[in-house]
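SUBJECT: A protein chain and its fold
Encoding: whole-number codes for local backbone shapes
RECORD BEGINS BELOW THIS LINE
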Amino acid sequence: MKRIVAIVIVALAAAGVAQAADFGTDPNPANPPSGVPYAPDAPNITQSTDPSTLEAGSIACSSGGQFASDNHFIRRFFLNADHGITVQYNVTSIDFGIESVTIYVGTSAPITMSTYSIDSGAALTFANMGTALNSVTRNFPDGTALSIENFVVGGSIVDPVAQDLVIEMYYPEAVGDEYGIWPGSNTLGQTQPGYLASVGCAIAEPTDIAAIGFPDMHLVATVNGDEQVVPTPTPPPPIGAGNPVPALSSYGIVAMVLMIVGVAVLLMWRRN
């Protein structure tokens, strides 16, 4: 009897370990790399060498190798230092890659895109990011694969010299094993690192994905926005340089002559 109990305990422990959250790739990756020719136009900005191609092989924190744990995928944009932006920058939307969405229970999975402002030079922590400037959540159906998705989300960086822009793709843990999600990435290069945080995988703060052990996973994202150029005020014209005095018409001349004659007659009458 004791032997049977011991076997049961070992089996239960093994099952618990199998469901622990860990980093992994999509167990059912889409085959062909995607790619829609795309090159962001200034002031649209990206850190992806190729922002139009997605490849299978992204990692995410998951349980059982397929069910989503909580995941924050983050990029930090140095607007002034890297992109030469010197005036207020207004985000209008974000294009972010999604490698795959698999639904096990229900019909869709939620993904939230947010923008943040962080002081230039400050460490990339959730405390320094503060409250989101703006957020939007979209629900994705089963079968979404190798797709660059547009999230209509706003947010303004008033002073790009003193502040950096942070964007975040987030989805919560699939508590009931409802879905699995993997972000879109490629191995084609990037100008700044991508970051990941996940309580489920014991990474409490945004951490360089390369430092976790995945240096070739480059998150694909493009920020669409515009620079708010303040119009230069038009100085007032100098004194005497205003609009020219309009010429009198023939009726105006006659009226002026009659007025002069009338004044002269009035003066002569008063003198007499």
